[in-house]
Write a structure and sequence with these properties.
Elements lengths: L1 H11 L10 H7 L3 E5 L3 E2 L11 H14 L5 E5 L5 E5 L1 H9 L4 E6 L4 H13 L6 H14 L4 H8 L3 H9 L5 H8 L5 H7 L5 H14 L3 H13 L5 H8 L2 H14 L4 E6 L2 E5 L5 H11 L1
Parallel strand pairs: 2-4, 3-5
Antiparallel strand pairs: 1-5, 3-4, 6-7
Length: about 290
């Protein structure tokens, strides 16, 4: 009977069995690849990835339109005749873009913890994740699955030192993390900046990297010089020479312009305010704020 049910499902799609499908049938179908209606599939709430490149998604949609879905998505059964994605959200979204009604799906059983772990591991193995997405995935495995770094190393097939290096990126200032996610700087730049404890100093060096288009090696040298005291630190000069009435206002001014504003004191109650910009668009934005 189970074989007949499976054959029927493979031939007509699982929708032919809904809404009468039961848990016994699902157990029999577990491990099978069937055509499943897209409307019966819900997005995985444990998906660690929140950003999908629209251009890349459209390219995948065009490929699916021509060749179909080559690799099935993975789902698990929920209540109320619904299924939930375990892996394959890009394929799921792209199939919707081209107007497909069904998608090949691999059914497996999994509880919430297994769902989270599978989604995290599947995401970590991807080649197109930015370093912060990988780091956040590792952190979730620590916080929500209670895995040690050694256990994670075994699960994802990465060296423990590699996992540690990713996790350290989360100590960077959020502005620096955003720059890494937007590909303004690389993971190598980020690893160099981790050696600067003060986050204000991190931002100062980060903006220098952008302005001067520093390589990773140049950034490492700048950080070393900064730590050795040979680099004129903006933060140090501010704390040493800048009156308190200026330093107390700098944070508000920096937040207003969206950049860390620098003040150069040249004499008693005299000096300059320097507002950095990184592009023509950025310059025009600041110009409007000044008006």
């Amino acid at each position: 009977m189970a074989k007949a049910t499976r054959k029927q499902a493979m031939g007509r799609g699982l929708s032919a069995l809904l809404p009468s499908i039961d848990e016994t049938t699902i157990k029999n179908l577990a491990g099978s690849i069937i055509d499943l209606e897209l409307e019966a599939i819900e997005i995985n709430p444990f998906q660690p990835r929140s950003h999908f490149n629209e251009e890349a998604l459209q390219e995948l949609a065009n490929s699916i339109k021509e060749l179909g879905v080559i690799q099935p998505v993975t789902v698990r059964k929920l209540d109320n005749d619904k299924f939930q994605l375990v892996a394959g959200e890009r394929r799921f979204r792209a199939s919707k873009l081209v107007g497909n009604k069904t998608i090949p799906a691999y059914i497996r059983t999994a509880n919430d913890q297994e769902m989270l772990e599978m989604a995290l591991v599947e995401n970590i193995q991807r080649k197109d994740l930015d370093p912060i997405e990988v780091a956040l995935s590792y952190q979730r495995m620590i916080d929500e699955i209670n895995l040690t770094q050694e256990q994670m190393s075994e699960r994802v097939g990465k060296k423990r030192s590699t996992i540690t290096n990713y996790l350290r990126l989360l100590k960077l200032d959020p502005i620096v993390q955003t720059g890494m996610r937007d590909n303004f700087i690389s993971m190598g730049h980020g690893r160099a900046l981790i050696n600067i404890d003060n986050q204000d100093d991190q931002i100062t060096i980060y903006e220098t990297i952008l302005q001067q288009k520093l390589s990773v090696r140049q950034t490492e040298a700048l950080v070393k010089s900064f730590k050795d005291g040979n680099q004129n630190s903006k933060t140090k000069s501010l704390s040493a020479k800048t009156p308190s009435y200026i330093t107390e206002s700098l944070k508000n001014i920096s937040e207003y312009f969206g950049h860390k504003v620098d003040v150069k004191v040249s004499g008693k109650n005299k000096g300059k305010i320097v507002i950095p910009f990184h592009s023509e668009e950025d310059f025009n934005r600041i110009k409007k704020l000044l008006k």
